[in-house]
Specification:
With 324 residues, the chain is α/β, with parallel strands linked by helices. It contains nine helices and eleven strands. The chain has a six-stranded mixed β-sheet, sandwiched between helices. A three-stranded antiparallel β-sheet has the order 1-2-11. The protein has a two-stranded antiparallel sheet with strand order 8-9. It is elongated.
Length: 324
């Protein structure tokens, strides 16, 4: 037996105390009309019986206000879920404007659309350039995810491209998950040039953990440029993206090692189609057994108590002839 509301018990006991004061007319002179055929001894006995009935009734009501319930066991709910980590390149080259308005903003927009199609999945976000950083651990809070997506920006993570450590961080984050289907979606436009772990070593770690790594190369156009400032007259200045084009070979190997696929997306529409294809991933289920099923018992105790209280008041009025 357990209780859902201990404060309710105290309220019930307070009611019992008030009723007791009323029953014994404490502070008042009782108006009693003694029936001719009822002796004082019998009347006192009957009054004691009525008081006990009322007292038990109030105890039952107090008990019911504590919301007594009996645990019946644990419920096992099957929850359809995937764990999906977006690993997003935030190096300066992601500001190239061959996507509208640029590669990074296009990626954020398409990630947001993807998340809305998967409301039951747990989404995590890691961003990287020279360093890798967990922006959002796995979460199902859609409002929070939407907010965090807007915070994916170029800035404080250095100037290199560290694909290996970024994938390894996502693998470490997902390794303890209960979901059978764990997925990393890597979006990058560069070549890995820093880090303590190579992209292929990280891919091998993902394989050992049963995590697929879908890789998406963004861009690839030879004329892609990034803004580097403005002239005195406010006109944007550009430079060709340093560091060369996408490492399609390595991205393809990463996907192949983990049993996933590599995609090249050279514009907004292509990126949208790529994420829509990945969205068709097989859904899996995990068991959640944390919810306890209870049998609520407060109503039956309340009805018993109410019946007893009504009976006690009727006996006071019609048997004891008290003015109540």
């Amino acid at each position: 037996m357990s209780y859902g509301n201990f404060s309710g018990i105290f309220l019930g006991l307070l009611g019992m105390l008030v009723w007791t004061f009323s029953f014994f007319k404490i502070g008042k002179k009782a108006q009693v009309f003694l029936p001719k055929n009822l002796s004082i001894g019998k009347r006192n006995l009957m009054r004691a019986v009525v008081f006990i009935i009322g007292l038990v009734a109030w105890l039952l009501i107090s008990f019911s206000m504590g919301q007594p319930r009996k645990p019946l066991g644990l419920s096992e709910n099957n929850i359809e879920v995937n764990d999906i980590f977006f690993v997003v390149d935030v190096s300066k080259s992601m500001l190239a404007e061959d996507f509208k308005p640029n590669r990074l903003e296009a990626a954020k927009s398409k990630i947001s659309e993807f998340v809305k199609l998967r409301p039951k999945d747990r989404i995590g976000i890691i961003m990287f350039s020279e360093k890798a950083f967990t922006l959002l651990p796995l979460s199902t809070d859609l409002k929070l995810i939407e907010q965090i997506i807007t915070e994916i920006n170029v800035g404080f993570l250095g100037s290199g491209t560290n694909i290996g450590d970024a994938i390894a961080l996502a693998v470490a984050r997902g390794a303890q998950s209960l979901a059978e289907n764990k997925v990393i979606i890597l979006l990058t436009d560069g070549v890995s040039n820093v880090g303590s772990m190579t992209p292929l070593q990280a891919a091998q770690e993902a394989k050992e953990q049963g995590i697929k790594v879908y890789t998406i190369g963004m861009g690839g156009r030879e004329d892609a440029r990034i803004p580097v400032g403005r002239t005195l007259f406010g006109k944007k200045q550009y430079q060709t993206i340093p560091g060369g084009s996408i490492d399609t070979k390595t991205l393809g190997q990463i996907a192949s090692i983990t049993g996933a696929k590599y995609y090249l997306a050279q514009n907004d529409e292509a990126l949208k189609n790529v994420l829509l294809e990945i969205e068709k991933l097989e859904r899996t289920e995990i068991k959640a057994s944390s919810r306890i099923i209870y049998k609520e018992m407060y109503l039956q105790f309340f009805l018993y108590g109410l019946f007893g209280l009504v009976l006690a008041e009727l006996l006071r009025k019609y048997l004891l002839k008290e003015a109540i």
